Amino acid sequence: MKKIRVMIIEDSDVVRMLLEEIVGRDPRLEVAASVSSAEEGLRLLHKVAPDVISLDIRLPGMNGFQATKRIMSERPTPIVVVSASVEKEDLKISMNALKAGALTIVEKPVGTTRSDYREMADQICTQLAVMSAVKVIRQRRPRVPIQTARPDGPQAYRVRKDGVFRVLGIAASTGGPNALEKLLNGLPANFPLPILVVQHITPSFLEGFAAWLDDVCPFAATVARDGEIPAAGKVYVAPVESHLIVRAGRIRLDASPPVSSQRPSGTVLFESLAREFGSRAVGVLLTGMGDDGAKGLSELRTAGGYTIVEDESTAVVYGMPQAAVRLGAACESLPLHDIAARVLDLIADSGQEGDRREERNTANYPG
Prior knowledge:
Elements: E1 4-9, H1 13-25, E2 29-35, H2 38-48, E3 52-55, H3 64-74, E4 79-83, H4 88-100, E5 104-107, H5 117-131, E6 157-160, E7 167-172, H6 176-185, E8 195-199, H7 206-216, E9 220-223, E10 234-237, E11 243-247, E12 250-254, H8 266-276, E13 281-285, H9 294-302, E14 306-310, H10 319-326, E15 332-334, H11 336-353, E16 357-360
Parallel strand pairs: 1-2, 1-3, 3-4, 4-5, 7-8, 7-13, 8-10, 9-10, 13-14, 14-15
Antiparallel strand pairs: 6-16, 11-12
Helix pairs in contact: 2-3, 3-4, 4-6, 4-7, 6-11, 8-9, 9-10
């Protein structure tokens, strides 16, 4: 079996050698190049032609964000950000690297004596292996703008009296930060619903992710706290190792076992919205590995909620959306750049019609 060729860009000699050892011990991977600066990596990029890049953030000269932009414009290659720091400035660089085209972020190993060293090493290798198969695109031109027009025609929709929407739930994993940033920026600052988010991310980066989201989207974004009443136009991010649910009108943090190997879990969030809001909830399942969120989205659809999954054409990893489609959990499957417009369309219609909402005709959008 052909091995996956990894380029390591890391300025610390100690960490670089550690990463070389970690990659070299994995039978799926091999070190194609190992360099101490982004400039050196860029010089070797076309010659080495790696399948995936392990990229540090804090580098001499060009930082990880700048390097990501260059790589994605010159020779698009899957990038896994490997960072040790949770300081605000470094986290901002890491998140902006994801926005520029990097696929995921993992914690950097700092020594073999840590009790979780082997787990961290396995996580790095798994992410490198999985991300190497992702088809990335050149980032020179801007994305297609969001289309706000909806399909017309008498066959496009079926209308029923179910009441106006009360909440928007979103779940994402690999590729999620970038997808979330795009989706949320497609919504107006006066968006009338609270937004509950489950994002699978390395625990040490969760606080920084929420702070970054607060900076880049038009809403206040925060890590959810137990007992809060969710407010319109605010983003609540599920905290580390707690499921995010809504019960009796308040956010509750739940420490029950992981679902689909995840805590927080998108399935738990969507199941909660199905119980609490039923047909008054909108659920969106974005890019990600595995099948988390699919079962919960199915329950939400069964309860009358409106469910949207990201289409394969834009999903970085189609695992979670695909699992939902296979379960018949999706009212619609849409490219990322169309999801915000569809959510706004649904909400506008429910408000204009007065206790009415629209649902895709299942003849046109089979489960």
